[in-house]
Amino acid sequence: MQVKDLFKVSNLISLFRLTLAIPFWILLDNFDQQSVRYFTAGLCLFAAFTDILDGYLARKLNQVTELGKVVDPLADKVAIGVIIIKLFLIGELPQYYFIMIISRDLLILLGGIIITRKIGWVIPSNILGKITVIIISLVILFTILGLNKEEYFYLTFYYSSILLIVISFISYLVNAIKQLRSVRNETV
């Protein structure tokens, strides 16, 4: 990773999204106010837009970097992590859901660091992981907006996210093992 990559527009957008964790934390202190919920939901949508934008610009401007492969998913994990922690602390999400999301993200992050050190490059996120983040994000958004958690619509996304958390983690694990074996086979 090079310092000049830090100033590429796509990476700057990812870094900006990383800083959104601060207003998310502060806003969720006033979760009982409907106007704050709407503003927070709007900020979530803005964060999602910046996530799409930085990926688009990285490809369009040929600015795909190793730094971007780290900062982009890190910004997603930090923003979602902060929101999940806060929603759990204020009693809006059950403990097992909180633990599943935080554990998955921490294990993927730590595993990614270990794998990167062993193989020398960052394994990019896969489509299943991206879909999982989208579904979790929708559950978060629905929770912030105050949707009825007993309705079929909410429950469909909620239980889909749980299934995807497990499946995507297994997918990341299998991919990491394949990458390690591939590197070991090349060195033999």
Structure description:
- This protein has 188 residues and is an all-alpha fold.
- It has one domain: Up-down Bundle (Four Helix Bundle (Hemerythrin (Met), subunit A)).
- The protein has seven helices and no strands.
- It has helices at 9-19, 21-27, 34-60, 66-89, 95-119, 127-145, 152-187.
- Helix 1 (9-19) runs parallel beside helix 4, helix 2 runs parallel beside helix 4 and helix 3 (34-60) packs antiparallel against helix 6 (127-145).
- The longest helix is centred in the C-terminal third of the chain and has 36 residues, at 152-187.
- The radius of gyration is 17 Å and the shape is globular.
- The model has no long low-confidence stretch (mean pLDDT 89).
What gap, in angstroms, lies between the N and C termini? 27 Å
Fourth-level CATH superfamily: CDP-alcohol phosphotransferase transmembrane (TM) domain
Per DSSP, the total helix count is: 7
Major sheet characteristics: none
Q: Strand portion, in percent?
A: under 5%
Low-confidence stretches: none
Shape: globular
**Helix-strand topology string:** HHHHHHH
Task: Explain the layout of strands and helices.
Layout lengths: L8 H11 L1 H7 L6 H27 L5 H24 L5 H25 L7 H19 L6 H36 L1
How would you summarize what this structure contains?
The chain is mostly helical. Helices cover 79% and strands 0% of the residues.
